[in-house]
Amino acid sequence: MNPVIVRGVTIGKGIPKICVPIVGVTKEQILEEAKMICKNPVDVVEWRVDWFEHVFTTERVLEVLKELRAVLGERPLLFTFRTLKEGGEKKIEVERYRDLNQRVAESGFVDMVDVEAFTGDEIVKALVKELHVCKVKVIGSNHDFHGTPEKDEIVRRLRKMQELGVDITKIAVMPNNKKDVLILLTATEEMVRLYADRPVITMSMSGNGVISRFCGEVFGSALTFGAVGKASAPGQMCVGELQQVLQILHRS
To answer: Taking the model in full, what pTM does it have?
Structure first.
């Protein structure tokens, strides 16, 4: 396993790192959320730009990013446009998605970009290459809000992401019962033990899946998502409680 180091934060080694999303709609809300997050034990900040009211005006996005960078200081910043088909707020054309992510990477204001791994192999490979030229790390992601695939399918998707060249692989699934949570955890353990040569992030969403957000150090998930204020996905816990549980498990 080769960890990914971003602004001094090592993802893929030790206690899972905590990431908190920003989901403000206006520039003012976004910057206020960033200031609140900086008062908490957070390792990585994610800007969920699909919530932003001016997301389709790239210059407005870059304007906010510049101010976000100033507020966050040396905290790593992950840029994410979560598309409607994967649980996000808005639809976006593939070429526009690619152009937005590339422009953002070129700005120098972000450290990582989330790329939805099943947007199309050629598009994803090209985008990953472009982002790497900009010295930006890539999280390849897949989100299933309808259910939990079988273990072998989860592992297949994560291995496919590695083949596409991303730096970190990520999958989030929706459990319909407690057994689905076990499937996700089993797939995570198998992926990390047998196939992963880079950090893996997995989670089972909703109340049923909360345990998956705590036990990454046991099963192999390198980063977990918490909330300061409004959550961006079902099952996110507040950062303070999340940190306490992670530290308890680490000590044991």
So the answer is: 0.95
